[in-house]
Specification:
The structure is a single chain. By secondary structure, this protein is α/β, with parallel strands linked by helices. It folds into three domains: 184 residues, 3-Layer(aba) Sandwich (glycerate kinase, domain 1); 177 residues, Rossmann fold, CATH 3.40.50.10180; 60 residues, no CATH class. The chain is built from 16 helices and 15 strands. The strands form three sheets. Strands 6-5-4-7-8-9 form a six-stranded parallel β-sheet, with helices on both faces. Strand 10, helix 12 and strand 11 form a beta-alpha-beta unit.
Length: 455
């Protein structure tokens, strides 16, 4: 490997880590939650610079998502034990489970819900319902919360909800589309948790994994008003050609809801939201800003490609390559970092193993084979949670020599891509990015580093 490539790979990892550090969930809670002992008062910083303050009798702490353990640890360290009601609850994916004092930590399935998540959802619902007027329900939300807390409405078995989620994910549906359907099959999502906690006050600290930070979409908005409808949920399934494939119980519930036989999810004018507030404590955009700063510190000319990279992963890879080609043709004479944040999708057509970031990395090196970059380059695409799809990799870290390593191993990368089998192609090239679970989740980051060939 050329020394320049080795340095580029090291720099890409350093830049990616800066994005992870910017989404540190423990620090994020510490920055926004304070206890004033002399006044026996809790203050919560809002995003507009103001504070919400109160002398709440008891604080009920509920955390769910991939960063639940870190977020709840920070909250427990700030709020005095005598103020905390009962045993606090943290629900996270199995990879992020860790034992915590005075906290019930529950591992559950992600990205597909499981029976452990169903039990956890019931415990969360019970804990919220125990809150009284004059209490505060402090909800700590991070990415993955939708799958981790399955609470299907009466008449829909958990397996039917899992099947519906599985079909939506495989169809290439956007996160907004998936969540619209899930909200209308759930007792907790789409404002359901806020409804259960009433008449107590509710405040939610949110670590966003959703582009644009739509609070109603993050973890399917359990404490936020929902503007979507039963009719929209049906339209999404029909548009994705899934209506005939989802279980009959799901069809029946959504159809009855659209007919007005079941109540809609709580809307913005519902009385329960008069006592519910929110603070965004971390997001993909914050991490994108951090990787831009890290690139500049490493003396790269920094180009922001996209703050909301979406669409099919393999198509996004081609468009990124074309952007880099145009930049090189304009004439750049120093190392350059092209950066993005977002969440692409994959429409499954094969039976292989991988995730959207691995697919994007493999597609990028194939695009670069067809239209070579006149530069030494490294491309990193990875999930900030350290988990890309149903694999143990965070994503891919490829370079201008990756394709040769794959061919040398008698792997046909085009066939791998067609079979959605990026994992094995990248593994043979030693190009899987393995970070382990990071304990946070603010979607994905893309880092393309170039050293132009000076002729």
């Amino acid at each position: 490997m050329m020394p320049s490539i080795a340095k580029l790979r090291t720099d890409a990892l350093h830049i990616f880590q800066a994005g992870i550090d910017a989404a540190d969930p423990y620090a994020a809670v510490q920055q926004h939650l304070h206890y004033h002992a002399q006044q026996q008062q809790i203050s919560i910083h809002l995003n507009n610079g103001n504070c919400r303050q109160g002398k709440w009798k008891k604080v009920h702490i509920i955390a769910f998502g991939k960063a639940a353990c870190a977020m709840i640890s920070a909250a427990q360290a700030i709020i005095p034990a005598q103020k905390i009601a009962g045993l606090s609850i943290a629900v996270t994916n199995y990879e992020n489970v860790q034992p915590l004092n005075h906290i019930e930590v529950i591992g559950a399935g992600h990205p597909l819900p499981d029976a452990a998540g169903l039990i956890a959802a019931q415990k969360v619902a019970t804990h919220a319902q125990q809150a009284k007027q004059g209490d505060l329900v402090l909800v700590l939300v991070s990415g993955g919360g939708s799958a981790l807390l399955p609470a299907p409405v009466a008449g829909i078995p958990l397996n039917d909800k899992i099947k519906t989620t599985e079909l939506l994910l495989a169809s290439g549906a956007s996160i907004n589309e998936v969540n619209c359907v899930r909200k209308h099959l759930s007792r907790l999502k789409g404002g359901g948790l806020a409804k259960l906690a009433a008449p107590a006050d509710v405040h939610t600290l949110i670590l966003s994994d959703v582009l644009g930070d739509d609070l109603s979409t993050i973890a399917s908005g359990p404490t936020v008003a929902d503007a979507t409808t039963f009719t929209e949920a049906i339209s999404i399934l029909q548009h994705r050609q899934l209506w005939e494939q989802v279980p009959l119980s799901v069809q029946t519930h959504l159809a009855k809801g659209a007919q007005g036989l079941y109540p809609e999810t709580p809307k913005a004018d519902a009385a329960i939201f008069m006592h519910s507030r929110h603070t965004l404590v971390g997001s993909n955009s914050i991490s994108v800003h951090a990787i831009m700063q890290a690139s500049t510190r490493l003396n790269y000319a920094t180009q922001l490609y996209s703050k909301q990279l979406i669409g099919e992963a393999r198509e996004a890879a081609v468009q990124l390559l074309l952007y880099a080609q145009n930049l090189l043709q304009q004439g750049i004479h120093q190392p350059c970092a092209i950066l993005a944040g977002g969440e692409t999708t994959v429409t499954l057509q094969g039976s292989g193993l991988g995730g959207r970031n691995q697919e994007m990395a493999l597609a990028f090196i194939l695009a670069a084979e067809h239209s070579p970059l006149k530069a030494s380059w490294v491309f990193l695409s990875a999930g900030t949670d350290g988990i890309d799809g149903p694999t143990d990799a965070a994503g891919g870290l490829v370079d201008s020599n990756s394709l040769q390593r794959i061919y040398t191993a008698n792997i046909h990368p085009k066939q791998s891509l067609a079979n959605n089998d990026a994992y094995h192609a990248l593994k043979i090239a030693d190009d899987l990015l393995m970070t382990g679970a990071t304990g946070t989740n603010v979607a994905d980051l893309q880092i393309l580093l170039l050293i132009p060939q000076i002729i």
